[in-house]
Design brief:
Blueprint lengths: L1 H46 L2 H4 L2 H14 L1 H33 L1 H16 L6 H8 L3 H25 L3 H9 L4 H12 L1 H25 L5 H10 L3 H29 L5
Helix pairs in contact: 3-12, 4-5, 4-7, 4-10, 4-11, 6-7, 7-10, 10-11, 10-12, 11-12
Length: 268
């Protein structure tokens, strides 16, 4: 009984340990961020001309001004919508193509040269084409984000399926399981970690796609705001857009990390 109580207490202590570690890590991350901002503020105030680097205080003032005018949500919502739709569309199409390529290996080998050529193509070169096809509205930016992330999902899904043990799949086929059942019950749960890793990479790529689309042709969004600020030699405006993009990427990655931890909890 005493041994059982001691082991239970030890197990509880082990479960509580990561909480303290997480709090300590969060404190260290916050301290590092604040120290970086303070060093930037000092450099911008005393050593470097603010025209070249601006200062955190000026950036926060600009963010507050944009918020008061309602422009902050106007620009952020546009960029988030473009990147979010592109990421969602790219994940669905990419996972589907990846599963098909993993299933029909001969067809994948035939189309691989063209596929790798498209993958190696700098997607920035496609932006003018998307503008010609879809105009300067939302579809062009969504397609730009889509083109940035879809190949990441395809390649990760293909590699994830190839890394699986084929014996359970072959056994289920001999028992009469169809492809749809195997995909939903075996393949997707098995490659979930690969798909979630694709989302972590895709967040940044989707933002890049939306930003590129806005830089080429747009009337709103953080990319448009950065380009307009640069045209007016407004360094604070440029850094404001960059800081907002960094903040969005950090929040999105944390969300993906939390979701990944919950979805893969059954593995531990």
């Amino acid at each position: 009984m005493a041994n059982h109580f001691a082991s239970s207490t030890q197990a509880q202590g082990q479960r509580k340990a990561p909480v303290g570690l997480l709090g300590n890590l969060l404190f260290q991350q916050t301290l590092f961020t604040l120290s970086t901002l303070l060093a930037w503020e000092i450099l911008g105030a005393y050593l470097v001309d603010p025209f070249w680097s601006s200062r955190p205080s000026l950036i926060f003032q600009r963010i507050w001004l944009l918020w008061q005018r309602g422009d902050l949500t106007w620009h952020i919502s546009a960029t988030l919508t473009e990147a979010g739709l592109g990421l969602a569309f790219g994940s669905v199409v990419g996972v589907s193509i990846g599963l098909l390529m993993a299933r029909y290996t001969r067809a994948a080998q035939i189309t691989e040269p063209l596929f790798m050529g498209l993958y190696s193509l700098p997607r920035v070169a496609l932006a003018p084409l998307f503008i010609l096809w879809f105009g300067i509205g939302l579809p062009a930016k969504v397609m730009m984000s889509f083109s940035m992330v879809v190949f990441v999902f395809v390649l990760n899904v293909v590699e994830g399926v190839r890394a699986l043990d084929r014996e359970p799949i072959d056994l289920m086929r001999t028992m009469g399981a169809n492809d749809r059942y195997i995909i939903h019950r075996v393949l997707l749960p098995a490659i979930l970690s690969w798909i979630l890793a694709s989302f972590r990479i895709g967040v940044g790529l989707a933002l890049i796609g939306a930003l590129v689309g806005e830089l080429i042709g747009s009337s709103r969004g953080l990319g448009w705001y950065i380009e307009r600020s640069a045209g007016q030699l407004d360094t604070t405006g440029v850094f404001t857009g960059i800081v907002l993009l960094i903040a969005i990427a950090m929040v999105a990655n944390n969300v993906v990390t939390i979701v990944s931890a919950r979805l893969t909890r059954w593995r531990s």
